[in-house]
Design goal:
Helix content: 40-55%
Domain Aminotransferase class V: 24-394
CATH superfamily of the largest domain: Type I PLP-dependent aspartate aminotransferase-like (Major domain)
CATH architecture of the largest domain: 3-Layer(aba) Sandwich
Protein name: cysteine desulfurase
Radius of gyration: 22 Å
Number of helices: 15
Pfam family, one: Aminotran_5
Strand content: 15-25%
Cofactor: pyridoxal 5'-phosphate
Structural class: alpha/beta
Catalytic activity: (sulfur carrier)-H + L-cysteine = (sulfur carrier)-SH + L-alanine
Amino acid sequence: MFDVQTIRRDFPILAREVNGKPLVYLDNGASAQKPKVVIDAITRAYAEEYANVHRGLHTLSNIATEKYEAVRGTIARFLGAADEEEIVFTSGTTEGINLVAYGWAMPNLGPGDEIVLSVMEHHANIVPWHFLRERQGVVLKWVDVDAAGNLDPQAVLDAIGPKTKLVAVTQMSNVLGTVVDVAAIARGAREKGVPVLVDGSQAAVHMPVNVDEIGADFYAITGHKLYGPSGSGAIHIRKERMNEMRPFLGGGDMIREVHKDSVTYNAPPMKFEAGTPGIVQQIGLGVALDYMMGIGMADIAAHEQAITGYAMDRLGGLNWLQVQGRAEHRGAIFSFTLDGPAHAHDISTVLDKKGVAVRAGQHCAGPLMDHLGVAATCRASFAMYNTPEEVDKLVEALELCHELFA
């Protein structure tokens, strides 16, 4: 049974105060807090079990290697991937998408070839494709969302033309919370022979994910949003795409042999994992994913949907507050502005004085801000440990903002 108070006790930071007020942490879309089981695992790894992996036969190296490599299977299980060899460790979604850009797209796309993007994409799923636009003449084709913030899968598929070589799309907007039917996009794109990359940074935290059912060629996640350490993450890459990729980084672990006049690369996924990795970070991520799966992703999603519904009801009574986007299917993320002169940064500062942590700015989503016609928004994002009472505190703090800035 899902018990939010029991879960809250697993997160030490939630017991602290900020500016003399109990912390209300609603910036989970940027980075989630860490449960004690993850903190303890990280401490133990450094204090009792640390050594480099893959490079020694001594006891500590064997322990570290075993725990580190076990995370590959944990991630595969979390993502519903049948083959853990399709899991490549990364430092997060940004590195994962860049791996695809440099390792797959750069050698396979040329002048005039197209990449289809939605206007909702995070900069991490935009800038690597701009590199190809600048350097190789690749064309970026943009698909807008409707007035409610929905992204129609058919509109994405309709944007695919004879020169389209990739569709890159988020499964959940980090600004609007819009949930995208990426399975429909992947299915339709496959029929047209076009690979699909999915940015799963937000979706994987808030809902059950099964990459085999989604059917995308690439699916990237980032650990620090999944209650794990920063610097951890992974990307699921289908084997047929791995076979089309060249290495992105060169160094240890991604090679079998190196000679003066030749080099032999390791087999995937090691082929794409150069250098000493984030050993402890990935071990911590594995513990975080086990923690989430132990609670149950369906139960986490149901709790967060209930909190989001309650928040929408409370905020709907504030006629001076504008929620950006009202998508039919949305996750536990929403952005808002206030009528009047208050900038998002001013609002965030006032909320912080009440102990309420939200994000303010463009949220690394410049094209979406342009589409919405706003300079910046505040964003609240829920996690498994948030409560209706914290929604009430957010509303109280917003009412203070309205009094100050009206």
